[in-house]
Request: fold
Amino acid sequence: MLNLYAIYTIARFEAKLLFRSWAFRIFSLLGLIILVFFSIAFALPGEGPPHYVRALSCSLVLTDVKLLNIYVGIIAAFLATEFIKRDRKHDTTQVTQARSYSNLDYITGKVAGILSVFAVLHGLVLLQAAIVDLFFLDSLFAWQAYVYFTALISLPTLVFVIGISFLLVTLLRSQALVFALMLGYSLLVLIFLGSELFYVFDVYAFYQPMIYSGIIGLGHAEGPFLLRGFYFFVGVALIAATVLLTRRLRQSTWANVGAASVAVGCLVAATLMITSHLETEYAGRDLRNRMRASAQKAVTSPAPTVTSYEIDLHHGADTIAADVDLMIVNSTEQELDSLLFSLNPSLHLSLILSNGKPISSRRELQLVWLKPDQPVAPGDSMPVRFSYSGQVDSRYCYLDIEDEQYEKLYRLWLYTIPKKYAFITSDYVHLTPEAGWYPTPGLSSGAAFPAAARQNWSDYKLSVLIPRDMSAISQGDVMIDSTDLGNRYTFRPESRLPQISLTLGKYEHKSLEVDSVNYSIHYLPGHDFFMPFFDELTDTLPALIRELRNDYEVTLGLDYPFERLSIVEVPIQFYSYDRLWTVTQDMVQPEIVFMPEMGTIGAGTDFRQMKRAARRRQERSNQADSPREIQAGYFSLFAKIDILERQTNRWGPGREHELDPRYCIFPNFVTYTSHLTSNRWPIINRAFEAHFAERVAVIQDTRSRRWRGLTDAEEANIALRHLSLADILSETSMKRATRVAALEAKARFILSQMELKIGEEKFASQMNRFLHSNQGRDASDQLLLNFLDSLGDFDATTMFDSWYNDTLLPGYMVEDIECYKVLDGERTRTQVKFAISNPTKLDGGIRVDVRYRRQGVDFRPWWTRGQAQTDYSRPVFVPSMTTKSIGFLVDEPVSVVAIETYASQNIPSVIRISFREQKLRRNELPFEAELSAPLDPDDIVEAGEYLVDNEDAGFDVKDPAKENWLRRTLLTLFGSDREEETYVGMRFWNPPGRWVATTDQNFHGQFVHSAYYKKAGDGAGMATWSADLEEAGNYDVYYYCSGEDHRPWRRRRRRGQTENMGEKHFVVHHEDGVDRVPFDLNGAEEGWNYLGTYRLSAGAAWVELTDRNEVGIVTADAVKWVKR
Amino acid sequence: MQIEIQKLSKQYSGGKYALRDVDLTIHSGMFGLLGPNGAGKTTLIRILVTLLKPSSGKVRIDELDLQRNRKQIRNLVGYLPQDFSTFSRLAVWEFLDYAGAMSGLRRKKDRLARVDQLLEDVGLFEVRDRQASKLSGGMKRRLGIAQTLIGEPRIMVVDEPTVGLDPQERLRFRNLMADLSRQDIIIVLSTHIVGDISSTCSHVALLNLGRIVFKGSPDTLVTQAQGRVWKVYASALELDELKARYPVISAVPSEHGYELRLVGDERPAGSVEPAEPNMEDAYIYFMQSIGYDMDLETSDNGW
Reply:
């Protein structure tokens, strides 16, 4: 049927023609140059890209293949259509068309020709990537990634693009039109549609999750196979359809029948693949919903307590089998006639025994109800053995996470990483409690949410038999017995734990014992990229670890409760989420921190950069730290920013995509030590954690506010103005980051209120006592209430109720923050001073965090420098209707003072002031006190003064009528028309054409420091302040000029020249008409500026500001009238 | 070997007939297909080389049906279209190599030898490495012939091969065709230039408005014009008048005015002597006699 020789000939000459076409040569050369440039950038020894790019085992080839794919896709559309144009244009092809071959031969030959040409280009690209990969990158070379990405990314795209271009050009007969269509489609997919509908439109595989892990390779990757197969087969079907539609008279019926069969066959295959893909995704959603529903039905069912687990686990090819012996205790006050357990739904239960006898049971998805013959009386215990086997279904994990978040891309730069929550493959297993790999009493926390789930504290014994070349990692003391079948690992944690994890793999490890804690790091062979960076530390490491640990324990006020601490690398695909009810993530288990392979997305794992930065800074400052000091510097930094500090508003890798995973060991001190459960206030344990977390809090980086508009915490504060904590828990439609931030703010608020009333030190030591006395158990809220009531004269229950159900928020006005040096006796110390008022009806509290000016080398990567561990911190109680003058002394020069307002009406919620060098004021006396004075409501607004801020009702804006119609339509069409945000960032490089509200500490406002701003216009846009004056008279009119008005926006300041800041144009309405008042910003003061004195009658008075200005932007903040 | 065309019609989508009820039998040797522009020659040829489907009628090549046996027929046919040009970026020899491979010459050695042989035959060996698209018009046409011949076709179909060639190239081309016509193959030569046909074709068919208006030997066609071709000596004044009345084939300025050659059923008035008709005269006479408007002043100057 096929004339192979004709196909070969056509392909050979098509390829020859393509190779010789200048279009192709220029395109290819340009592409190659760009990609070689990338490779060089990857390979550069000093500079280099971020660590995650160098460390991912496939990063360079994936980058190259992804970029080349888009590039080739677009070129292929052009070149594929080129030959049809050529066919039509010249009689040359008629010469060939009159020869004997079928249309199938012809099109097949053409496709083969085009493919072979691109194969050569692809080969060149892979070759240069492989060279760099092999010799210059940290990660191990994995040839499989080259094959997979070529087959899964490049080939389907190319075949699809050729197919659709052929067909379109055959039908439309216009190369230009087809090329424009293809280009349009590409842009649509790359900008808007890529991740929609489970990546169905993602022809370039640009968004589709796909990565090659150095540990598990592609992992289970049916998704990519199905989708990429879909594109491949659609492409082949379209090519076959082109055969049928070609205008050349057919020569062989069989060839046409063949082409038709291929077209139909491929379409069927493609349809099956895409439906299977979608079905899997929808079935996943459905299964999760069913699991949620069955969990919610069982949420009130009482659950037993398991006091001990003995787990005997076998690892098969890609399954596990386990016999688990539990000791069940009825710790409720009622008889239990059925015992509820949760277990991953795809683990098949083969047998459940009690005292050697089968026990009847019922299973509904993840839930298992045991029906003992006799109800279990309160306090009674009963042994149960579960025997089960199978894979784990990761859809069981994170039932509390909404679909949107669950399906959201886990994206690092160009890479979309498939999110995985558990692994069972033939040579790798990683199971955390979230996977439900062993039966747990009651519901999992995620399934129960928003109700509270009890924490089960048990004695564990885990035994697992594995081949000799693998090792097992879990909690507790380990015994390794060699048997004929392999090594048997037996783990016995020394204390009761709420959960355990299990990781099996071909790990190597290094360990070190310091002060009876065993510190270890487990990594795959060849993944010890970090070793050369710490070669000088052999002797000093114990001291360094001791110092870090002691510092942290002292700051936190708690001791590390375990005998081990391990860092274990896990596949990059392993993902975990922020939970609303805890600071804990599955990345951190008792005694273990899981970090993505090669420390990929750690903030402090880029040792190469840190080493280089340290050297450079040394050279600049002419210091001479020894290599050992430098290494110790970045070792400490890694420990601090990745393991010790709990970062919130993170920057660095993945921040723009709101990555959740965190590796902070804090939960080991609190969450894995004790737990509080409350049905009244399900979130209470979060408040408990927050109290301790607060002790090791870092100063938040709020610099991103400038372009983001609002931080998550501020969005949370806006939400909290009308939503109670209870509302937030059930409000699933809310933006997740805002929900997390709102809960965090509320959690931090409640205990800090009590702390402020009792006193910081006393409260801290009492809370430590409470924690210790409840170690290894699940404490009830009543226990906490009793404890709190015993501490002071407040009613904890009422406070918790109000905290949980009310929407009241305090607000603060901060004035006169100063920082200067004073003489304190013999010493020169730094005085920090400010005044704060709380004019709301709710008592409030703030925390003042101070960071000292650093001397010497700063190892921090730039993205972590803004947020740093606090050097001095103190809470301040600010009662309702009170003003406090606060002063304290610190021993070092200060670089940042940040006032954290918690859940409050304040925006910005963190008032962060940076200080330069502080001068000594010899005449000032040290001031170390908190002076309270009642706040008189009349003091806030003086008589005869009318102040209108942009937040007030008297303020209004009018936009110029013009609007970009096309832009708006496109944005609306593709759903990118983001909801009107309350406040936006200051976009000075491209200011908006209409008035928008933005916030900054420099703006005027009582709690919300905001202003409106827009691009300078021709005067058509207008802002208006109006007030209702009680009496007629002469009034002074003022405008509040903020720092933002003073910022040089557009023009660069030339040497010796002052920047022209332009003029504002006010229109003041008065009794005799209007007065146009130009206001020269160049001479303006920050604060209130006098515009003039006018005779005004009683009633409405108003001032307008036009958007006319010579320079970039116009801001509109506040105006006041003061009666003379 | 013979081509038998029966009741062949081609109607385009607009309803216009390009061919209508064409009956024709073509035997071995060179067959001339003559007719003015738009007569339907190219349509007929494109049907013969299986690039176009007829609306009705039958074409058989020996026992092969044009519709059903395209594969075999394509193996028999070599085709040189009217506006032959080659792919840019291929050398002369590469283009022939491609054509050879496409006509089934699988052994590379044999094929390349054949390529060189043909290049010698058509006088292009010296420019074998030049880009084919950079050849002169005549050279291109010769390359076209070479690619037609490379598969050793039994039927050669050549459409308007001499248009735009200079006289020397045209002569060269005609000689080449004459050599070929001595082989046992069918050569269908479509042209509107009578000179291409007169010397070499054993049979001709005249096509006008899609219909065959004459078929037979060139001699029969010439016979029909016997006694209807005149040599007239006329002044400049008379020239216009004569031109208005008769198809004037040539007008050569002479000492006393013009020496004209024209066709007409009657002997024109004035200084006239009968002339011996040739193919061109016969073609003009014939076309005029069937009512075709021979506006010779604007016709192609090439013949």
Q: What stands out?
A: The longest helix of chain B spans residues 167-181. Confidence is low (pLDDT under 50) at residues 297-303 of chain B. DSSP finds ten helices and 14 strands in chain B.
